[in-house]
Amino acid sequence: MAIRAFLLLLLFAPLAPRTSPSQGEPPTFSASVNLVKVPISVFDVDGNMVDGLRAEDFRLWEDRAPQEIRSFGLDTYPVSVVLLIDTSPSSRKELKRIRAAATAFVQGLDTGDRFSVISFDDEVTRILDWTDSRKKLDKALGKLRAGVRTALYDAMYLAAAEQLKNVDGRKAIVLFTDCLDNQSRVGFEEAARAIARSQASLYVVSKTAIVRKEARSERRVVILNDIYRRLFGEDEDYIEQFFRKREEEMTGLAEETGGRSFFPTDYGQIRDVYAGVAREMKSRSFLTYVSNQALEPDSYHRIAVECLKPAARVVYRKGYYHLPRMPYNPRLSAGSFREP
To answer: 292: which residues sit within 8 A by CB, 6+ positions away?
Structure first.
């Protein structure tokens, strides 16, 4: 079943009270304003983004309470993107194509955007810190090497809680993965909460459609399948169930954060998927509203948006944390990144 992840605060701006007025001047006051920014993309039946929309084409609720939409428009602010790349054994033969896909993604970004690259297998390695240099990207991608095991959830957690810590503005994590994990010190839900509090949109490029058949011969998957069959019976395809659950978890988390998931069927499609994600990211719109709800620090608030124009799909961030507290896990401290 899909794991419904916890969602993200995009933007709020509490205004500090003014200093005491000088003698003879009338007192002035300012109120705390909780401005929330919701990234949103609207698609037609052919999968193309719908243009020409206006604020009055939407209705919005927070915690089931109607909200007044203040603005709607194209989000042209620079974006900070973490490329999170699975280099576990299932990637060993296709590292060249994975490098090409990452390069295609960065080529789709604009001047002012920046990116970092984190790989994960047995360990989580930050192979490139924040930069806008394509030359540094090429050099870093040359360091990708396939490992033996997979610390997927540790990588998700560290990308959110450490790499995106103190990063303001638009944020995204683009995760390339087979959705398998056998090495992490944190679980999926803890990693999902970290992504929620980081305020980043998650885009998942899953290679499960590619590796399903190969996985049936992998020792870790065969052992798991045998255990399930002994416990629950021999008639079910537990490998298929396992992959479906992982896909649902990742898809649910991506959609909750305002991102999306993609399932290419061969490695040749991955470059186009990455390039498409970059185009979509740079063509996103946003809605803003001032919350009329009582907001406590680190409290979660659900968002619902309705598009009044014909649309096949509306993708938006479905909630946020007010004044989120970033998680701290002593098992994954700031020094948990392995540097190449």
So the answer is: 62, 65, 67
Phi then psi for residue 291, to 5 deg, are: -60, 135
Phi, psi of 117 (to 5 degrees): -130, 125
Report pLDDT digits (tens) over 150-173. Answer: 999 999 999 999 999 999 999 999
Asked whether 136 and 106 are in contact (CB, 8 A), the reply is: no
Q: What are phi and psi of 97, to 5 degrees?
A: -70, -35
pTM: 0.85
Torsion 184-190-191-194 (CA) sign: negative
What are the sequence ranges of the domains in the chain? 35-74+284-322, 79-281
The H or E element that residue 62 is part of is strand 58-62
The answer as to CATH 3.30.230.70 being correct for domain 79-281 is no
Q: Which residue bears the tokens 């050099």?
A: 139
DSSP 92: G
52: region left, alpha or beta (phi > 0 left; psi from -120 to 50 alpha): left
Closest CA to 77 of 36, 104, 111, 108: 111
Tokens encoding 76: 């042209």
